[in-house]
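Cross-check.
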Amino acid sequence: MPTILIIRGYAGYEMILIDTSIWIHVFRDKTQQYAQQLYKEIGEQDIVLTRFQQLELLQGCRDEQEWSLLSRYLEGQDYLETNPDMWRAAARIYFDLRRQGLTVRSPIDCCIAQIAIENRLLLLHDDRDFSTIAQLVPLQQKQWRFDAGGQHGITTNPSLM
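Predicted model, tokenized:
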């Protein structure tokens, strides 16, 4: 497992976990405006990924060339690895959400949320499922959006205030 340097940064968090929903916008934006605004927002903050982001990004590649480029890029990133207890805790999140009538489209989001909780990370995303998950568990999350017109913003989980 790679060594991860820890420094205080964005909103007081040591590291920030950026969800696939953000990375997709970064990689697809040919103008690079999205990435510029994102990096302006997070500054010099340390970024970490999970293997779920690696899986989701690679499965979305359009062709062999894109696979090769993205695969090489992802090889150089820092990853948080899961522990055996994470699987049960993530399943419990999904189970409890369902019992309360709340729908999450993918159990992978429950896994990502649980990893963020266990490691006390801020999860930056553009996926409504994390806002739903945060209604049930103490997920430190912010929804970040940027559009081509230059508008961007963060929607904070009310439980963080």
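The radius of gyration is 16 Å. The CA atoms of residues 29 and 154 lie 19 Å apart. Passed to J.P. for a second look.
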